[in-house]
From TrEMBL:
Keyword Transferase: no
Taxonomic placement: Eukaryota, Viridiplantae, Streptophyta, Embryophyta, Tracheophyta
Species, as recorded: Olea europaea subsp. europaea
Domain Alpha-D-phosphohexomutase alpha/beta/alpha: 91-182, 314-415
GO BP annotation list: glucose metabolic process
A GO cellular component entry from the record: cytosol
The name this protein goes by in its record: phosphoglucomutase (alpha-D-glucose-1,6-bisphosphate-dependent)
Pfam families linked: PGM_PMM_I, PGM_PMM_III
Amino acid sequence: MATFKVSSVETTPFDDQKPGTSGLRKKVKIFKQPKYFENFVQSTFNALGADKIEIISESWGILSVYTALRRSVPGFSQNLLSQLPPTLFSLSAIIIKMAAANGVSRIWVGQNGLLSTPAVSAVIRERVGPDGSKANGAFLLTASHIPGGQREDFGIKYNIENGGPAPEGITDKIFENTKTIKDTIGLTSLTGPEGQFDVDVFDSASDYVKLMNFEKSYPSICLAMFTNVVTTLGFLKMTLMNHACFSLLVFISEDFGGGHPDPNLTYAKELVACMGLGKTNTEQEPPEFGAAADGDADRNMPLHILIWFFVTPSDSVAIIAANSVQTIPYFSGCLKGVARSMPTSAALDVVATHLNLKVFEVPTGWKFFGNLMDAGMCSVCGEESFGIGSDHIREKDGIWAVLAWLSILAYKNKDNLREEKLVTVEDIVRQHWATYGRHYYTRYDYEVCMTCNLSYLLFLVIRTVLYFWKLHFKFKLCCFFKNVDAGGAKELMAHLVKLQSSLDVVNKHANDCW
Ligand SMILES: O=P(O)(O)OC[C@H]1O[C@H](O)[C@H](O)[C@@H](O)[C@@H]1O
């Protein structure tokens, strides 16, 4: 409990605070403008209505974690958390004070401010305070899969009471507020111990671990992976525990060590090398299984290499869906339905047809899966951007996806452990293709582009697609534009979709362009 004085401070609006698919992501230098961060937080409080909020937890996306299952004993530093950058703590303090001033009665902060995004979702859904209170939502501070640090990106997003990202109704309101905001409300003094405001620091991992119910839900692997869990290392402890079968390469720093934490073949190159790509005669036998996660642990990339093999995210979600009922007791013998984002390949749809399941196609963004899950219509879902999850929470979950894969591997090898050759990820994927057919697609990432160049590029893409259609090829193409204002990209897309209806018009625009 604490006493404090509330004061209102004049501010001027910024016109560029429109939240994208995953909240507000900008360069740190933009966030550093006076009042920029406070304006967004205040606009969020204004959009929610103070009486709606009681508890807020936070997540720092400052971890770039590559893990590999190996036979060696890990080198695991117990002091990792002491390296958390002070800037992030000061942002936490700003939110705490503004929350108090805006009428929030209690805040939950993960120990050291360190949670994964899936863990935040679990906390909102599962954590119950001593007086029976539950979280109304959470601020998450993370650059996610984007490069972080002083010269790179930072992000803030708000998740609602179902544990998932705020829906467009709320983010639109936040944006409207950011354009008209005149005051932010803060504290001039904060002393205790009287008054109606609590800050509880809690064990970052316990709610997630409880929810995952490892021993019951993942029985085939929990004994191998979760026996030696140490209980003091934030969310890392239950994912990268000190076990003889687990070896870690962990980088913790404000700027991801200068790296790009997107878990794909390009950016997880240390992992790819460690898994033996391109080596025919490795001195050391490569690990049997490796996985990469992004900065906030919601994206994943499982790798399995005996002969180098990579599973695309679209195949990955289809294979998990096809095998999950047999291999993961959490699903209690049935899936409620499955879903994928629009650019994700239709491999999942084929599985759904075979299993007589409903399949849904949703726009990009995890909030759309959340709606289906809240309605009890979806158990497993995924996006081609390395995000896969289930209805245990309302965020994608890199740890869950890796556990799902390990469960499948364990199941396929259960009668096979004494054999020379185990069933591999590659065997499972090839068997899947043989059963369900194979889907091909290409993903292109264009990063840090000017909007005008992107418009030009979109014209090229549309021309190419139309060309292929004309030749009666079946063609599926995904394009992703990062570091672009999501609202602008959406409008541009809508405009171009209209243009697609007429080849002549597209050609005219395209010709004007070059
Ligand atoms: O929450 P994040 O990991 O940052 O991902 C948020 C979104 O980022 C990009 O827009 C991807 O294309 C989406 O598929 C993803 O949902």
